[in-house]
């Protein structure tokens, strides 16, 4: 890497799109490491976690936002504010539409919101999940997408088989202003480790649970301390909050089997993230209506 910034580009990009459009998975594919949180359930991404693509000629910072949705709670409103703020601040936006779903009102809603808050930002139309459909369907989707809004570019990609992921990176980088590195090389995300750990636990807890549950789960990491007398092991104490006792039952599972599995999955991911062995102490707590209570929201980091 040269010290001169001549010809070097740097800046921010984010992916927008309906829930489940594949934004988080695409972020991971571009960054090449698991920092943003994915799950098969919609609206699970909560923090604006930044993944960073480092190249000799550019640094592309990806901001992963939650999906925009009709706000029903205080939390919902705050999430939407975060989304709009992010959209207005980035240098380029990737508008994701899955290849296997009809372009519809949800996409037009997002396009209208983008037109309001990001008037001058170049928008790249991204057809995601091309591995799920035939080439003909990809072409049809490209045509349908052109009706939604004016795009700076259009590109079909698949995060699963890697199709055009590199080309998409090139298109995004080309829209960044010239400038020096914004973050030191090698850094994956600027979120504190405890936040990432909490997200990994949340992700594991959401695997395979009902559609209504995602917004009812929050995780706090209360302690991360090295095991006494050892430098290769970390003790992590975390709490998983649900809103109702019935949800606690779902998380725990029969005789606590499910929580055990959640802990074990989360522990493996945390060990991979931190590069050390982890003992995870995980408990479930009912915090009634935490989504509607400003005091509890603050305590849980929102
Ligand atoms: N076959 C296929 N599946 C994909 C691809 N990208 C994402 N998926 C799947 O689509 C689902 C949703 O992906 P996410 O990346 O979580 O979608 P998202 O847009 O971030 O969703 P929200 O966080 O709810 O807004 C997951 O089950 C992914 O595994 C792809 O390129 N091909």
Automatic annotation (TrEMBL):
This is GTPase Era. Residues 17-24 are annotated as: G1. Residues 209-288 form the KH type-2 domain. Residues 43-47 are annotated as: G2. Residues 64-67 are annotated as: G3. Gene3D superfamilies: 3.30.300.20, P-loop containing nucleotide triphosphate hydrolases. SUPFAM superfamilies: P-loop containing nucleoside triphosphate hydrolases, Prokaryotic type KH domain (KH-domain type II). It is found in: Cytoplasm; Cell membrane. It comes from Actinokineospora xionganensis. Its main location: cytoplasm. Residues 157-159 are annotated as: G5. It is a peripheral membrane protein. An essential GTPase that binds both GDP and GTP, with rapid nucleotide exchange. Plays a role in 16S rRNA processing and 30S ribosomal subunit biogenesis and possibly also in cell cycle regulation and energy metabolism. NCBIfam families: era (TIGR00436), PRK00089.1 (NF000908), small_GTP (TIGR00231). Pfam families: KH_2 (PF07650), MMR_HSR1 (PF01926). InterPro entries: G_ERA_dom, GTP-bd, GTPase_Era-like, KH_dom-like_a/b, KH_dom_type_2, KH_sf_prok-type, P-loop_NTPase, Small_GTP-bd. Belongs to the TRAFAC class TrmE-Era-EngA-EngB-Septin-like GTPase superfamily. Era GTPase family. Residues 9-178 form the Era-type G domain. The keyword Hydrolase does not apply. GTP binds at residues 17-24, 64-68, 128-131. Residues 128-131 are annotated as: G4. The gene is era.
């Amino acid at each position: 890497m040269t010290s001169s910034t001549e010809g070097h580009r740097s800046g921010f990009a984010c992916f927008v799109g309906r829930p489940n459009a594949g934004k988080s998975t695409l972020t991971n594919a571009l960054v090449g490491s698991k920092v943003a949180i994915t799950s098969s359930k919609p609206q699970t991404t909560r923090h604006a976690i930044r993944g960073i693509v480092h190249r000799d000629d550019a640094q592309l910072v990806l901001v992963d936002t939650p999906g925009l949705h009709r706000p029903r709670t205080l939390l919902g409103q705050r999430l939407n504010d975060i989304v709009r703020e992010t959209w207005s601040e980035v240098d380029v936006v990737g508008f994701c539409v899955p290849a296997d779903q009809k372009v519809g009102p949800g996409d037009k809603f997002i396009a209208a919101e983008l037109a309001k808050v990001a008037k001058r930002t170049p928008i790249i139309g991204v057809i995601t999940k091309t591995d799920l459909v035939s080439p003909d369907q990809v072409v049809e989707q490209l045509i349908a997408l052109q009706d939604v809004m004016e795009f700076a570019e259009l590109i079909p990609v698949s995060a699963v088989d890697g199709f055009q992921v590199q080309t998409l990176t090139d298109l995004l980088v080309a829209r960044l202003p010239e400038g020096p590195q914004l973050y030191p090389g090698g850094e994956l995300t600027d979120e504190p480790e405890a936040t990432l750990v909490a997200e990994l636990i949340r992700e594991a807890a959401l695997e395979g649970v009902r559609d209504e549950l995602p917004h009812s789960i929050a995780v706090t990491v209360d302690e991360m301390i090295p095991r006494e007398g050892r430098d290769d092991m970390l003790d992590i104490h975390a709490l998983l909050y649900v809103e109702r006792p019935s949800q606690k039952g779902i998380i725990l599972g029969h005789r606590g089997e499910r929580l055990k599995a959640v802990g074990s999955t989360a522990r493996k991911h945390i060990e991979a993230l931190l590069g050390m062995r982890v003992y995870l102490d995980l408990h479930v707590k009912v915090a009634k209506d935490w989504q509607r209570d400003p005091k509890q929201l603050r305590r849980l980091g929102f």
